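Field guide to reading this record: the first block holds the primary sequence, the second block holds the structure written as discrete tokens, and the final block holds curator observations. Each block starts with its own label. This record concerns Antibiotic biosynthesis monooxygenase, catalogued under organism Streptomyces osmaniensis.

BLOCK 1 — SEQUENCE
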Amino acid sequence: MPIEAYEPPYYVAVFTTVRTQEQSGYCETNARMEELVKDIPGYLGMDHAQTPGGLGITVGYFRDAEALTEWRTNAEHRAAQERGRAEWYQSYTLHVAKVERSHGFLRG
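BLOCK 2 — STRUCTURE
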């Protein structure tokens, strides 16, 4: 189930990746990051998608820029970023945007 539509404005960080063959420790670190980000005041949630061809997309939702900055500068997160560049990612892009419009649909 995708993250609900929140009342704007809020922020999204869209992290798109292609991973390398070397994935030792990735799952454990990813699980730790998912637990750690939940402690950030203003964190709203996260959506993930992975294609069979290896393209991964993670979208993090944050109430304000301060919450996003706290996550970006978290020491444990920064260490995971370094390891990702060294081992786990062939390439990645990060897009940060302010959401100005948001709505959802749920078949009832």
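BLOCK 3 — OBSERVATIONS
Helices lie at 26-37, 65-73, 75-88.
The first helix runs from residue 26 to 37.
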